[in-house]
Amino acid sequence: MDQFDKMLAKWQPTALSLFRFITGLLLFQYGVAKIFKFPVLPYFANIPPLITAAGALELVLGALLMIGLFTRISAFILSGEMAFAYFLGHMFKDPANPVFLPLLNAGTSAILFCFACLYLATAGGGPYSVDEMRKK
Which runs of consecutive H residues, i.e. helices, occur in the chain? Predict the structure, then answer.
């Protein structure tokens, strides 16, 4: 088991950079869908200003995460946005009837994005990032 741990541990920095890129890409796609209406999704057809603002954050900060520029602050802001999205857009969508279980309120991805970004805010962008290149 110790050898297995050592084998995987050497790939941790690369996995962190890949995790950062994929998390940014997935958030970026939400921004593109909300702001540019591509792909066309009925759910994002006529969004209110708050969702437009969320889309702008996802578009810009998701792109920054993908390239690994200002990773920690971008991820921290996105983590807060996702926490806000979960509580406002999922758990308390109907304030009179809050739905606490993520499986029932469709908030699982918001929670996962929140904690993924919180991790990136603490771990940084990894060795394959613009942030790392700027240090050299």
Answer: 2-9, 12-36, 49-67, 71-86, 102-105, 108-123, 130-135
d(C-alpha 96, C-alpha 82), whole Å: 22
Sites in the chain below the pLDDT cut of 50: none
Place of tokens 């759910």: 43
Tokens of 79: 């983590």
* Residue 1, pLDDT score: 76
CB atoms within 10 A of CB 43: 9
Residue that has been written with the tokens 């240090």 in this structure: 135
Question: Using N-to-C axis directions, what is the helix angle for 71-86 and 49-67, rounded to 10°?
Answer: 150
Amino acid letter, 93:
K
Please give the model's pTM, rounded to 2 decimal places: 0.94
How much is the pLDDT for 136? 83
Helical H segments across 39-95, by residue range = 49-67, 71-86
Pairwise CA distance, residues 61 & 73, whole Å? 9
| DSSP code at position 40 | -
